[in-house]
Design brief:
Strand 23 and strand 24 form a beta hairpin. This protein has 13 helices and 27 strands. Helix 5 packs across helix 9. It starts with 8 loop residues before the first helix and ends with a strand. 28% of the residues lie in helices and 22% in strands.
Amino acid sequence: MLLCKGLSAFQVRLSHLLLTVCIAGVLFQSTRLYRQRESDVTHDWEDTDIVGDSQHEVEYLERLADRYGLTNLTKWQSWRVYLKEESLDTEPVTDVYADFQPYPDMAKIIDVKNPNASELGASKRMDLPGGSSWTQPKMPGSGFLFGVSTSYERIADRDWAILRAWKRWLTDGHGSSNGAGMVLMLDKASANQIEVMETMLLEAGIDAYVTSTNEFTSKTKRYYDLVRELKVYGATLAAIGQSKDWSGVIEDTIFFPSLTYLRDRLSSYNASEQLYIGIPSERSDWHQDGDSMATYGGGAVMLSRRLVSAIPKLPCLELEMPMSLHRAQKWDVVLGECVKKWEDINVHVMPALYSAHDSDYRPELESHETGVRPLLLRDYQERHQLDVGMAHLVTNVCGEACFMHQYLFRDDWAVINGVSISHHPNGLNRNRRRPHHRHHQNQHDHDNHHRHGHNHKHRNPQENDQNDPDTSDAAAKPRVPGQLTVDEDKVERMPLEWTGRKEVWKLVDSVEMVGGSVRQAYLKRGVQSQQDKDQEGVPKPAEEELDSIIVLIWEKETVK
């Protein structure tokens, strides 16, 4: 029998020692890398270089108090946000490996009528990734001509809110055009109103042709006539060397956060073909069509140049339908049905936020919590009480991709830039989903698909590939009707998920400071409840009754 001699006691102890050293080294290196990553993203320290003059901070508090009627005692905290030059284009969500509230006394209780100026300044700072480049493309809108039908009164409403929003996405932000053109059709405007609008648009740096209807007409007819105006004005621009590939037929509350992103999304289409592409924003932009969900754009439609030339020749207003039904239908539905019937083309859809194929849709989610980079926003003032022109101001510092970008912090706080800050005491669920990498299409063969200009390979969602998580759940997704193609190629969707309650601070103010920094104020109203009394019998509000302000001052990273 052959016997193997075992290891000596010394060798055993030595091997244990070496193993322990190796494990300790791995743990040390992992901890160091984790801390380095945390340090690279966010820093929590006292910064003696407080932003802003103390008197200016007091004046800013007074401004907020006057506008929003803050409680006499208000909770106040302020952060400096230094932006590191890192790309946000790949994902709409960034995990921040640090706490948003590193200390329990971050928020100070301020006497609004007699504030201590030293408590208002931003003495804490964090570093967060911003845009990959501080300079946007010089003329990102050069391939677009947009048409809007509205009234002078609507544009002038709420201190010219619509015009202020147009300035954000139809100019370079410095009073010059970004290349995009506009045809503005006013509803029965006077000669003086047309002249005023022309002057204001010119001063804003918006290249626009202003016209007016002669009489009050239906919205459907106005938008049908608007396409004719786009055809004529587009030909005029082409004659002077400013040809436009795409015409956007949009309602006055449509807001494009980034024409660069719109151009990138449209680049997967062949603009020389006849194309109708609807861009619905939220769930209400879709409608039930039997057992399917359908949309024709919900207020925003992109048309190729060839289709713009064809539509004015079509009898779109003579569709066989009862007059009452015709009046009730939305203009995009009539336009979409018309091109399907008379031009026999597919209607494409690029969802901006909500998609009918999103099986993870949760009705309690706000649109900005769906974790997708917004292609456009529609009627956000009415739907979410957000002044998009003001909210978009932060992109002057951090680039277009940072607007509505989600920053998720380790202590279950979430910053949706330009919209809200939320705290989730019971925890955030950090869910991640892969890009869609798919096109949902019904009742179209391969040849028909390519004949109408989309140059991506088509995959039928009904071909249930068990090895592909993007198609294995197709049966669980809502159906779309025939001649409707939903295109969601490479769109990241990372919805915000949490357990239990949430506390929300909403953006109420944004202003550009001297030097180019942007200051945002987010407000959470106090909860009304039974007041306690102090020793003298005077009502003493509990902390949850106090209004709360969080100020973020966004700055470009500088060499220190």
